Amino acid sequence: MAVPFWCTGWIMAFDYVLHKGARSEAVLQSVTPAQADMAQKFHSGIEGYAATPLVNLQQWAQKIGVGKIWVKDESKRFGLNAFKALGGSYAIAKYLCGKLGIPVDENAFNILRSDEARQKLGQITFVTATDGNHGRGVAWAAKLLGYKAVVYLPEGSSLERLNNIRALGAEAEITKFNYDSAVRLAYAMSKKHGWVMVQDTAWPGYEEIPTWIMQGYTTMAQEIAAQLNGDVPTHLFLQAGVGSMAGAVLGYFAALWGDKAPVTVICEPDKAACLYKTAAAGDGQIHKVGGKMDSMMAGLCCGEPCTVSWDIIDNFASAFVACSDEYAARGMCLLGKPPAGDARVVSGESGAVTAGVLDAIMTEQELAPLREALGLNKSSRVLLISTEGDTDKVNYLKVLTGKWRQK
Ligand SMILES: Cc1ncc(COP(=O)(O)O)c(C=O)c1O
Predict the structure, then answer these.
(1) The domain that contains 275 carries what CATH number?
(2) Are strands 196-197 and 319-323 parallel, antiparallel or unpaired?
């Protein structure tokens, strides 16, 4: 019998830091419910748009001693197996509609697809760097609207992710760089060739498009708020690469629910924990992580925080966790092989880490101080977002069959 992966003697890492932000509403202007309304209206005009499911995992909640666990299942998003296309599509539409001087509303997608719009706008190439999911979203949106996309992936990216992007007609290659250096390559190529860079992270001087991308992600948060039907979670766990998704979702909920917004925990791979490092330093400076960020949580292997979203996270997050791959594997198994009575959620490495972290906090004795500090108990109502499905099917199968890291 295969020994469960968390008993195989591999060294696991789990570090955390508690955080108290200033909770300034001034940082929420770009992710308000009004902004989210606009993004959702645009997305609702795209063929195949449907709110992804929010599942209620009652058996697991009972087992680990919380009141409720909801999981938003983004494997069902536009047939792309991850939430990311929400951001790329909205940013591309904002850019193109801006050129045409038309609103980005429920009609925008169809207008942009018309011959008339295409003739007015001419040839445009969109370029980006990606772990896979964002690039797939950009390639998908560019293809639907009739434009070219060029996509650079970091060293070590899976062939499945590369091929998924190429299948959408984009020019894509796996580079010799880590994610952050691939971003610099995409930027240099955009300058050299006059391409439009659609990057899911911001830095001083490059903020407009990343802000649109974050606004695109708020559609997911707005769907959740509607699906909760008046209920408000007490706790929210969000995974982060550069932090754009976490900033957008946390910011939207902070704007919507004010003082009632959930206690929020940001989770990252220990090898790429730039937000954890920035929070732990607590010196008002952004701190980066460099080198080969070797984690199977490919979507979270980013070493440089998004500056726009960091302001929101810094103000509203309550804790940061940096953990090793075992927690992602644990989450994948928990969601992929649920107890009888709970729905199955196919959740990939970056999608499932928050489930592994929540389970560990509730069940491991060494983490009792964190459990208490966060106020997690029988009356807690916890929200997780499974941001991707099995985007690396080979690894997903290995993890679920206990063959991952088997000695
Ligand atoms: C599946 C998945 N989840 C989460 C994230 C993290 O998003 P962000 O880089 O905005 O923090 C990514 C990023 O690519 C991702 O692909």
Answers:
(1) 3.40.50.1100
(2) unpaired
